[in-house]
Design brief:
single chain; 254 residues; alpha+beta; Ku70, Chain: A, Domain 2; two-stranded antiparallel ribbon; extended
């Protein structure tokens, strides 16, 4: 059973209901610490001023924004605290929009929501309403003094909250140096045929595994048991091939 990571008050219109938050995914990365190569023990990371060359204590450190090269506007801890949003843990839905109207490029993190005791009816009604309409809730969630843009989406008979990037933080694809090349109708038809041949009725994400993580865990286990480890190095080189011929061969191989 998952452990709750916090709570919030979900509101839409004049309806409000308390909910619990649950992390939808766990960190898959294997943790690696920095060690002293000579003795193999963990090292302490020190804060040293680049200009003065002295080690700093916690009270010696403030935060600043570099507004021009080498010039900073600074903030004390109290000034930053005064800028924070009110610590209300409020999850306010401002509107409901079509699910496909929010591009996946905006998605950042997913959290599951569960009803607090006494709010089960309101929770179920909202989840059912979103399922019936195909709409999702768009609003803001305030947590620990910070305000996040969020999307509320039904998951089966439950609800999930997706933290989104604000529009001002998302870069437009027009900034990417991408040159469009003309394609003939026959070339497009052949590419479409290959895509359709590789199509699946649904995404089965469980088929895909992080090979590097699996290999790293194997090596860790071998090292713990004192076994020698053989490392494989592979160099990938791109081959000059005829694109349309490669597509035809891919179709023929199924």
């Amino acid at each position: 059973m998952l452990r709750s990571s916090g709570s919030a008050v979900l509101s839409f219109g004049l309806v409000s209901l308390p909910v619990k938050l649950y992390a939808a995914a766990e960190t898959a990365e294997v943790s690696l610490r920095q060690l002293h190569a000579k003795c193999g023990k963990p090292i302490n990371l020190q804060q040293v001023c680049r200009a003065c060359g002295v080690e700093l204590k916690r009270d010696d450190v403030i935060k600043g924004h570099e507004y021009t090269k080498g010039q900073y506007v600074t903030f004390t801890a109290d000034e930053l605290a005064a800028l924070e949003a009110e610590k209300t843990s409020a999850l306010e839905v401002g509107e409901f929009v079509p699910a496909d109207s929010v591009d996946v490029v905006y998605f950042e993190k997913t959290t599951y929501l569960a009803p607090e005791k006494g709010s089960e009816k309101s929770y179920s009604l909202l989840a059912l309403a979103l399922n019936r309409t195909g709409l999702v809730g768009l609003g803001q969630y305030t947590s620990r003094g910070k305000q996040h843009l969020v999307l509320l989406r039904p998951v089966g008979l439950g609800l999930s909250m997706h933290t989104l990037h604000y529009a001002s933080a998302v870069r437009g694809f027009e900034q990417v140096p991408c040159k469009n090349v003309a394609c003939t109708e026959s070339e497009i038809a052949l590419a479409v045929e290959l895509v359709q041949k590789m199509a699946a009725p649904r995404a089965e994400l469980e088929k895909y595994q992080d090979a590097r993580q699996a290999r790293l865990l194997e090596v860790i286990d071998a090292k713990v048991q004192g076994h020698a480890v053989e490392y494989r190095t592979e160099t990938l080189r791109g081959q000059a091939v005829d694109l349309m011929e490669a597509i035809r061969e891919s179709i023929n191989k199924g």
